Amino acid sequence: MQFLWVYIDDLVGKGLEWYIIAEVLFYASASFVPLALPLAVLLSSIMTFGNLGEFYELTAIKSAGVSLWRLARPLTLLVVLMMLGALYFSNTLLPISRLKFGSLLYDIQQKKPALSLKPGRFYTEIENYAIRIGKKSEDNKQLENILIYDHTSGRGNTMVIVAQRGEMEQSADERFLKLRLYEGYSYEEIAPKEGQYYRKPHMRTRFKEQEIQFDLSAFTLKRTDEELFKDYYAMLNLRQLKKVIDSLELDYANRDRELLSITNNFFQFQKDSLFHRAPPASAGAVSAMGKYWFGQLDKNEQQEILRDAINNVQSIKGYTVMRDREMDGRRNILNRHYLEGHRKFSLSFACFLLFLVGAPLGAIIRRGGLGLPMLFSIILFLIYHVVSMTSEKLARDSLVEVHLALWISSLVLLPIGIFLLIKANNDSRLFDAGSYKRWFNDRLHWFGGKQTNKGLRA
What we know:
By secondary structure, the chain is of the alpha+beta class. The protein has helices spanning 2-11, 18-30, 33-54, 57-63, 68-71, 73-110, 238-264, 283-295, 299-365, 372-396, 408-425, 433-457, and strands at residues 122-123, 129-132, 135-136, 142-150, 159-170, 176-189, 202-215. The longest helix has 67 residues, at 299-365.
């Protein structure tokens, strides 16, 4: 649904075949796996162990001497296999699906809307023509009160066709539109001869029947070569990313040195002879010498020197700002490639991490179904996803170390998973409201009894 809301304007009204839309949705669905797979692992683990706890099956298993660690061992092996599958998917299948989705979506966006003539409106989607009709039959073939502006000559509205009625028909391959006009006139302004620009000759022609053929090749879906999109960072596997990152790092370093050398040309470094003496001259002596040298000049020369200095400072400031923007843009592109490489591994680890959180959490809450497990799953996944998105955005802007950004969310949930696993193995009533209520009442009784004993002793 999120995909449809984003791209609905590109899909509707273009006469796309059903299999084209199905192909787009199929390729787009692959991009949802990095979001759906960890959430599915989390929810299923909470529901599975919640059902075992709700029907006291965990209690029976533990009474037989089987610990929670041993019980979760086969499922852990299954999750590890799922991790390897997720790594293969994100490194191999996901870049291919993104490449095909990106190229197909670009072709759809470039496709013109389907031919649709509406009464009382000018239709300008056919190149070099503007068409307006007064009425249209229900079968979309019979037209009345037709007005056509022909711009094929490239001189503006020099050719106008008016007809009382007409018939519209597309060719079998839908590449051409045949418009047969009846009872009309055509008006054409003729270009004046050289030296006779003051004249405005024109020609009017009356016809009983006339046929015009329009080229509709621009309305067909043209498939672009996928090679044009393959260099985008989201469409590369690990091997390709490593190669591109090495090239980008080399280009970044070379461009940085190039811009730095240009910046140095704005300065003229020249040491005074006082610096070569032994011992070196003090800062006060150098400052006094500078004032003495500048003071020997007249006011016009001083103003000229100051003006040149200000111009140099403004030039170097503007160039430095431009240099920083260019280097920030290059670094942003480089960071995106680094993040894409780490994302392939973080997806795999997220499956294991959320299983580590979900399994003991389900054993503790002891609730199955889609009620409480769904609530906990949404809360934990939102924490994971929000932290991951925030750290990724900061990493793109070089505010967080790029190699650490996508692992911050894992570092946040890993201690929670270990804590829940320890509590679940010890049969802790972490989410039992009754145990907290009893603990609170015990504290109240203890505090009340202590106050009573103090009163009796007094």
